[in-house]
């Protein structure tokens, strides 16, 4: 079993390092180390056999948990794919302003929780072409949510 305190990064395949850095920075406010020039792993074994792989990658400066962006390489383990990571959850001070900011950047609102009057009330799912879904909650509900999910 992997101990949670040993988890240090989340790897995300992106079509282009620079555009991936821009989007993830915009979403999560992270900055970046210098992207690694195309790095080659000289000997790897995959289901196709033994060979080498080369790609560019970069880590966020902030962490832990660090983001690692890996530039997609078709036909390899680093090929663009639909992510099995469903979402990354975060609290925001003004959920309405954050939703509007993200929509103005070209993201899509996939779902939002509504109150009995049809007003946005809590969780919202925002997604984009990178398919790194963000679930945002209002900071004002942090304590109640943390208690509800048993991590207060």
Describe this structure in words.
By secondary structure, the protein is an alpha/beta fold. It has two domains: 4-71, no CATH class; 88-148, 2,3-Dihydroxybiphenyl 1,2-Dioxygenase, domain 1 (Roll). 19% of the residues lie in helices and 39% in strands. The chain has three helices and eight strands; from the N terminus they run βαββββαβββα. It has helices at residues 17-28, 95-104, 142-148; strands at 9-14, 36-46, 49-59, 66-71, 88-92, 108-114, 120-127, 134-138. The model has no long low-confidence stretch (mean pLDDT 84).
Please tag this protein with its features.
single chain, 152 residues, alpha/beta, 2,3-Dihydroxybiphenyl 1,2-Dioxygenase, domain 1, 2 domains, 4-stranded mixed sheet, 3 helices, 39% strand
Topology, pairings included?
Layout (H helix, E strand, L loop, with lengths): L8 E6 L2 H12 L7 E11 L2 E11 L6 E6 L16 E5 L2 H10 L3 E7 L5 E8 L6 E5 L3 H7 L4
Parallel strand pairs: 1-4, 5-8
Antiparallel strand pairs: 2-3, 3-4, 6-7, 7-8
What can be said about this structure in brief?
With 152 residues, the chain is of the alpha/beta class. The protein contains 3 helices and 8 strands, in the order βαββββαβββα.
